[in-house]
Design a protein that fits this description.
The protein has 19 helices and 7 strands. By secondary structure, it is an alpha/beta fold. Helix 9 packs across helix 11. Bound molecules: adenosine-5'-diphosphate (ADP) and magnesium ion.
Length: about 425
């Protein structure tokens, strides 16, 4: 297969030297069973590459099993990977296949391999070397025929030096390494990839893309793209969904890039002008401002899935409308919400108009308590009522936020929260969160 056809088929756009080398390497190794280690920052295309290697291999008619080793809790990773026998541990009511068995005849993609606990690393080494493994609770050796692709955004060799990654496993994985460079090191690819995303999203959202200005192009090229191609994709989508002019100029683009210059810095978020001073002089107005910021951010970060979009819109419309400061929302944001709902064909029912009366909302002169169903992990209702959330409610909220931030990766969430993974587990259980 020639390079262009291959790139088109697997969605790997780019003509930079870097991507050419990557593509050559993928094509060379895909027909073999050799173990491949993909290295690169988050969002550079490790998943796409793994799929391409599998899709070009003789194994393509069998499964590609994707395992995120960083997202599986330490306590169960072994049984997830290798399966277990009935009664192997409390709760093991049946025997179960692990991912290595499921992938038999196909490919297993071990994502975030650097996060694998050490006791499991030794078992990985064995299965990589001779296809042998044991189900948890069994002494019968099993065999599997899998092709292994591993990926990491960490410096594995550094982990070896730190003593958290086994050296023998490192060498076993290091047979063929494909390094996917960050987007800022392959600037030639930025515009073609961006163009493709904008065209795809325009088609999806029934919008017409009329191009972008030279200045916008320069900005796209000079921006650092800390989130790499994933970030580029999100921005393309936001531009298509939220900017109706269909022509992208520098000012429009800047609005979306601005908040991202320093990741994690709320100061750089696109801000809603604060018109809420009428709401009072207590600390609450601070919360209100942040609340609206969140609403706005949610608006800006509309996701791919139309179902998600609906749910999010529903949620924040709800919290906006139950907020006594709704009137303080800048008209542009209000219009945006109504228009978006219309464009996306979202049925807002009796919430359809933001000026509406039928939604439960707090009227300042009205002392009648209203019964509103709240999601226990949504703190926004406290902001309306001058109440202080309980420690438990706050805890749930923080846990939810941390898990969202790290895409459900419990290890990272617990690290951020400063609690052990075990404690996080207990709390998830305690609050019935999943
Ligand atoms: N070369 C490329 N051309 C076009 N889109 C790409 C390319 N590489 C990655 N993508 C897209 O970028 C996003 C992130 O890629 P992904 O493979 O999930 O990155 P990683 O696994 O390294 O975090 C995905 O939407 C993917 O389709
Ligand atoms: Mg990935």
């Amino acid at each position: 297969m020639d390079r262009e056809v291959f790139q088109e088929q697997f969605g790997l756009i780019g003509t930079s030297n870097a991507i050419r080398q990557v593509v050559d390497k993928i094509m060379q190794v895909s027909r073999t069973d050799i173990t491949v280690l993909l290295q690169g920052e988050s969002g550079v295309g490790k998943d796409v590459t793994a799929r391409a290697i599998h899709g070009m291999s003789e194994r393509k008619h069998n499964d590609l099993v994707i395992v995120n080793c960083g997202a599986i809790p330490e306590g169960i990773i072994e049984s997830e990977l290798f399966g277990h026998e009935k009664g192997a541990f409390t709760g093991a009511n049946d025997s179960r296949q692990g991912y290595f068995e499921k992938a038999n005849g196909g490919t297993i993609f071990l994502d975030e391999i650097g996060d694998t606990p050490k006791n499991v690393q030794v078992k990985l080494l064995r299965v990589l070397e001779n296809g042998e493994f044991f189900r948890v609770g069994s002494s019968k050796v099993q065999t599997t025929d899998v092709r292994v692709i591993a990926a990491t955004n960490l410096d594995l060799w550094q982990l070896v030096k730190d003593g958290t990654f086994r050296e023998d496993l490192y060498y076993r994985l290091d047979t063929v390494q494909i390094h996917l460079p960050p987007l800022r090191e392959r600037q030639d690819d930025i515009i073609p990839i961006f163009r493709k995303f904008v065209q795809d999203f325009s088609a999806r959202y029934d919008s017409v893309f009329k191009g972008f200005s030279d200045e916008a192009r320069e900005l796209l090229i000079s921006y650092r793209w800390p989130g790499n191609i994933r970030e580029l994709r999100n921005i393309a989508e936001q531009l298509v969904v939220l900017e109706k002019s269909q022509f992208i100029d520098k000012e429009r683009l800047q609005k979306y890039l601005k908040g991202r210059q320093h990741e994690g810095s709320a100061d750089n978020l696109p801000m809603v002008a604060d018109q809420s001073s009428s709401s009072g002089d207590n600390a609450n107005s601070d919360f209100d401002r942040r609340d609206r910021e969140l609403v706005y951010r949610a608006l800006v970060e509309l996701r791919n899935d139309i179902g998600d979009v609906k749910q999010m819109l529903g949620n924040f419309l709800y919290s906006t409308l139950s907020n006594k400061n709704v009137k303080a929302l800048p008209p542009a944001v209000r219009d945006e919400v109504t228009n978006l709902a219309g464009n996306l064909n979202i049925d807002l029912g009796n919430q359809a108009s933001l000026g509406m009366k039928s939604m439960p909302h707090h009227d300042e002169d009205d002392d009648e308590p209203e019964i509103i169903q709240h999601d226990e992990t949504d703190l926004s209702h406290f902001l309306d009522n001058d109440e202080i959330p309980s420690i438990e409610e706050t805890e749930q909220f923080l846990i939810r936020r941390a898990l969202e931030k790290y895409d459900g990766n419990r290890r990272k969430a617990s690290e951020t929260l400063g609690i052990s993974e075990r404690t996080l587990y207990r709390k998830l259980d305690q609050y019935g969160l999943d």
